Amino acid sequence: MGDRLFRGVIDFVKSRFIEMFGDPISNPKNIKQVYLKEISELITKGSSPNWQGIEYVDDETQTLFVTSENVREGYIDLSKKKYLMDEFNDKQKRSVLKKGDFLINIVGASIGRAAQFNLEIKANINQAVALVRLKQGLINDKYLLTYLNSPKALQMYETMQVSVARANLSLQNINDLEILLPPIELQNQFANFVKQVDKLKFEMQQRMKELEDNFNSLMQRGFKGDLFN
């Protein structure tokens, strides 16, 4: 039920995106296009801890290590966490994450999945993930996140990717992604819509959890015979 709800929310948001901005592939509204590098202050990627001689640790006080497995379509999945010694950040300073950074998978079957990192914790990434840090005030985060997971972006990824042992994108490919840049007022309107949808999704998730908890409690009472006493 939760997965279906999340998928439905994504499809609902994408439908609104097309309604407001048109099909991003054909661009029927002739929206201005820029390259991602023009609206970014940093585009880079991480590294393998093995290459740096850094070990994984079972210590949540150290650095969270975000891989392509964690970068889902539109969100960061931390159900499986990995940590590295903080020393990794000293060796890979450019890829230390900041709240608000965008992450795009650039290797393997999950190429093109994009999410935004919205945590204020120590974190870094591996070589299968590109980091995009935006210039302030040029584009709305929620608008860009939807765009980066749109059919237009997926089409660009497919055209650009190189198949070797595993399909991959280069950082130059990420720099050269074409981004539709409508007026910021329209972007903000779309972002407000997404916020309302997210709020509704959260409320529905809370209700579903309450129903599940009540059902489990009822089942336990049933097994104990308490229902009929």
Beta-strand level of the residues, as a percent range? 15-25%
Q: CATH homologous superfamily, by name?
A: DNA methylase specificity domains
> Uncertain segments of ≥5 residues (pLDDT<50)?
none
Helical stretch count?
Answer: 7
Domain count: 1
The CATH architecture comes to Alpha-Beta Complex
- List how many beta strands DSSP finds: 12
The secondary-structure class comes to alpha+beta
Largest sheet: 4 strands, antiparallel
Ends: how far apart? Answer: 33 Å
Mean pLDDT: 88
CATH fold group? Adenine-n6-DNA-methyltransferase TaqI, Chain A, domain 2
Give the quaternary arrangement of the chains: single chain
Q: What helical percentage do the residues reach?
A: 40-55%
Give the topology string: H per helix, E per strand: HEEHEEEHEEEEHHEEHEH
The coarse overall form would be globular
Order of strands, widest sheet:
2-9-6-7
Give me the Rg, rounded.
21 Å
Task: Describe this structure as you would to a colleague.
By secondary structure, the protein is an alpha+beta fold. It has one domain (2-223): DNA methylase specificity domains (Adenine-n6-DNA-methyltransferase TaqI, Chain A, domain 2), CATH 3.90.220. Helix content is 41%, strand content 17%. It is built from seven helices and twelve strands. The strands form four sheets. A four-stranded antiparallel beta sheet has the order 2-9-6-7. Strand 10 (162-163) and strand 11 (167-168) form a beta hairpin. The longest helix is centred in the last third of the chain and has 41 residues, at 184-224. It starts with a helix and ends in a 5-residue tail after the last helix.
